[in-house]
Each structure stands twice: as structure tokens, then as C-alpha cells.
Amino acid sequence: MKIDILTLFPEMFTGVIGSSILKKAQEKEAVSIEVVNFRDYSASKHSSVDDYPYGGGAGMVLAPQPIFDAVEQLNEGVKPRVILMCPQGEQFTQRKAEELAKEEHLIFVCGHYEGYDERIREHLVTDEISIGDYVLTGGELAAMVVTDSVVRLLPEVLGNEESHMKDSFSTGLLEHPHYTRPAEFRGMKVPDVLMSGNHQKIDEWRHKESLRRTYLRRPDLLTERSMTKQEQKWIDEFKADK
Ligand code: ADE
User: From 126's CA, which of 24, 119, 195, 214 has a CA 20 to 30 Å away?
Assistant: First the structure.
């Protein structure tokens, strides 16, 4: 996969793409990530990227020319997904991360405390994504969030231990609780079943605790899920416990 990130603040990305799993993913050549300052594509004498809004009003608006030219020049033939980061976009989810992980080329467009000329939205981008109902100073942090969650899904990026198959949201349920040694810490004990060596019992306990956690914390995730008979029984039990 190729990821290009268009921004006026490339230095913001250094730590995030140069560390941990994103760093390893690039070393393994599962992904190549390029951070591009779209000011470099400005055709104006002073490399400007924004201008006053038509109709007046406060603030500046990112002009179409530098962003259109940058996207067109970065297009290597396979039609890229061009993703505008903005609070008005569709809310980002694990489903969307899985969808984007199938693409060959992603281009993120990050604005910073100003608006985008509407022609960028209408004629250049394929997706508009928001990472939540709050306003950031720019799209950069949001692009890092989306990049991180997409890259970790690429084949061979996570080892077996870090496998994403059991992730919260991939399974439709939140993850069950985890414990490590010691078996007793300050009087707080690890559930006996986890130390029983009975893998069928352990799997059953994990499944039930996943469901309990989802029921208590995120009941909205259960409304569209079809339940097995056993799951329905557990839910009735949780209801009675409440
Ligand atoms: N830019 C500013 N706020 C944002 C948000 N919540 N999501 C994506 N991009 C943004």
C-alpha cells in the first residue's frame, strides 16, 4: 500500500510514522508512507495556499490549485482514494478501516484551522472522514489515527501475538478482561477458570465476559447483532444481575 499525506505541517508526523508498528510496517515494505507539504505545489509567486473567502467573513480558505495539483501528481495510475479529513465527514469506524485496508493507494488531505474550497470536496476527494464529534486544530491528528488503524490491518504487519482478528469491533464485541501473573496481587485474585488449563471452559468464559462488557459499556453494539441461544441466555442473566 502507498499512503500520501498532504499537510502544511509535515513535522507533526515524524514521531508517529517513525515509531512502533508503523515504523516496522514500512521496514517490511507492507506500506510506504510519504508526508508531502502541499505548499510545494503552489503555483503562486509566494507559495500561498489560501485566500480570503468570497462573500467576506472571518478566516481564510484553502485554495483548490495546490491541492488539486498535488493529488494529480501523486496519482500513480491506480485510482487513489482521496480522503479529506474534516469534522463534517462520515464518522470513522473499524468497518471503514477494513474497507480502506483493501486499497492500493490512499491520499489524505489535511487542512489546518481553515476551510476548504468547496470544489476540493466536490471534484477531487472520494471520501470525507471525521474521527469524532469534536473539532481539532487540523486534520493531521485525524489522518494519523486513520493511518494507524488501517496499516495495522495490512497482511504481515501484526505478528500472531498482536493479531487483530480478536480486536474489539472486528468481532462485534468488546474484548474480554485480561490477567497476567501474579495469581494474587494485594488480595485481588485472577479468576480460577483462567488457571484451570481447560481451554474449552476458558474460551467460554472469555466469550461470556466479552458479551457482558459489551452489554454494560456499549449496548448499542448489540442492537444489530444476531445472538445465539447461549448469548441470549447470558444477556438475560446480566439483566437480572443489574
Ligand atoms: N479536522 C478537525 N477536526 C476533525 C475531526 N474531528 N475529524 C477529522 N478531521 C478533523
Answer: 24
Spell out which residues line ligand 1, taking CB within 6 angstroms.
85-87, 130-132, 134-136, 138-139, 142
Residue of the CA atom closest to atom 4 of ligand 1:
87
Q: What are phi and psi of 217, to 5 degrees?
A: -100, -35
* Strand partners for 106: 3, 81
Give distance in angstroms: CA of 134 to centre of ligand 1.
Answer: 7
**Ordered per-residue pLDDT tens for the chain, 242 residues:** 999 999 999 999 999 999 999 999 999 999 999 999 999 999 999 999 999 999 999 999 999 999 999 999 999 889 999 999 999 999 999 999 999 999 999 999 999 888 999 999 999 999 999 999 999 999 999 999 999 999 999 999 998 656 777 777 778 999 999 999 999 999 999 999 999 999 999 999 999 999 999 999 999 999 989 999 999 999 999 999 98
- First and final CA of the chain: distance in angstroms? 47
- Helix or strand run (H / E) with residue 105: strand 105-110
87 Cα to the center of ligand 1, angstroms? 4
Give the domains, in start order, of the chain with CATH numbers: 2-151 (3.40.1280.10), 166-241 (1.10.1270.20)
